[in-house]
Specification:
Blueprint lengths: L1 E5 L3 H12 L3 E5 L7 H5 L8 E2 L7 E2 L7 H6 L2 H11 L3 E3 L4 E4 L4 H15 L2 E3 L6 E4 L5 E4 L4 E4 L1 E4 L14 H8 L8 E3 L3 E3 L11 E10 L2 E12 L3 E3 L1 H12 L4 E6 L6 H14 L15 H10 L13 H12 L1 E8 L7 E3 L20 E3 L7 E2 L4 H17 L13
This protein binds flavin-adenine dinucleotide (FAD).
The site of flavin-adenine dinucleotide has 39 residues, from helix 1, helix 2, helix 6 and helix 11.
Amino acid sequence: MKVIIIGGGAAGMMAALSAREQGAEVTILERQARVGKKLLATGNGRCNLSNTKLTLKNYHGQDAKFADFALSNFDTEKTLEYFENLGLITTVEPSGKVYPLSDQAGSVVDVLRLALEEAGVEVRTAFEVTGLRKGKKGGFQVSSKEETLQADSVIICCGGMAGAKVGGTQSGYELLKSMGHTMTKLFPVLVQIKTEATYVKALKGVRADGAVLVERNGKILAENAGEIQFTDFGVSGPAIFEISRAISTGKGPITIHLNLLRNMNHEEVVTLLHNRKKTMPNQTLENFLTGILHNRLGRTILRYAGFGFTDPIHTLKSSDIKRIAHAIQDFEIPVIGAMGFDAAQVTAGGIRTEEFNPKTMESYLVPNLYAAGEVLDIDGDCGGYNLQWAWASGYLAGKHAAQQKKSPTPYKKK
Ligand SMILES: Cc1cc2nc3c(=O)[nH]c(=O)nc-3n(C[C@H](O)[C@H](O)[C@H](O)COP(=O)(O)OP(=O)(O)OC[C@H]3O[C@@H](n4cnc5c(N)ncnc54)[C@H](O)[C@@H]3O)c2cc1C
């Protein structure tokens, strides 16, 4: 049995090891100069490879339930055990996020690369697959511009459009479409948000803890809390990534509201500010929020609330204090839109999962053709869920692609 895997990313490497376990002859074709290039960039170079708090609610797509079988079959526990057997020790943060103990994404790529070598998987880099056809005598012809290879089964693990610099491409969609598959609309998710820059520009590099609310015409589209990072064009950081889906897929004028003292209610913030007025009456407003918020953020909030910096603090009236408290807890920023695929971590949407068997990852349209990972219409939240999907779906596809099948399951459109 000869299995060709197109794409040497997370799903592709896992699929290769799994197919090899079944005794198949396995080749990975990777268009870049090395396998696992995107993996190296994950988790800010630390690779958040899984999450111990995973549930199906962390996944999205037109039919997110499609992911259930693969994720249960190769769950987080099995994944960590699998990696441990490859030599990778992991550590779990209180949030459930799993990282290599070395804190280096390179360790994840290294153990996979070494395992592929040891298992005897052929890895061909700088091999960009440009054509896929059914062979005349069964099987497939997989071609680059230079050569054509034969395979009994093929697994497409080309990933999605996100992160173009580290491998994001349309290629997987095109190859699957050439075999008759169809796809949903694509959106960049887990991505920074471009906002109106008047106040944000001065905050480049500032990090803050806060609650984020996404609103359109008075309707709340999404809410989250955690670390917010300000950039010269808008906002970023874990709390923002999570809500980027609502912005990326939403239409119309959207506003984000930041609560920069999320653990206090309005009255508590007002009291805090009144006390400061009492303790520092002769200092200038410039220092009014010093020690409560990051200095630059404090000054921006004052400007946003309509105050200058030079007046003494004792000149603040009760209504002024209320206005400042309100600005701290409802810093409203009009949204321009989500940044594009180049900046995104993940692609929402993809090849329609209803065209694949969730128990094997085999195409219902073309027997012996498989797909796994981000190329399919499944995406996860920020926190290791996307890599877990890549491992789980890759493992399942590899296992089944390596087995000779009796008769394929016919496709019934829902
Ligand atoms: C900056 C960044 C940080 C991230 N951090 C995390 C994180 O910490 N945790 C997490 O869970 N997820 C994270 N993700 C998402 C995660 O990396 C992806 O969801 C995951 O890598 C998808 O795996 P995949 O195998 O489907 O695709 P990929 O890992 O993208 O691999 C696809 C591979 O296929 C190759 N390829 C494409 N087309 C062809 C072709 N025609 N011929 C040959 N080769 C081809 C590509 O070069 C690539 O190497 C991050 C993503 C980015 C961009």
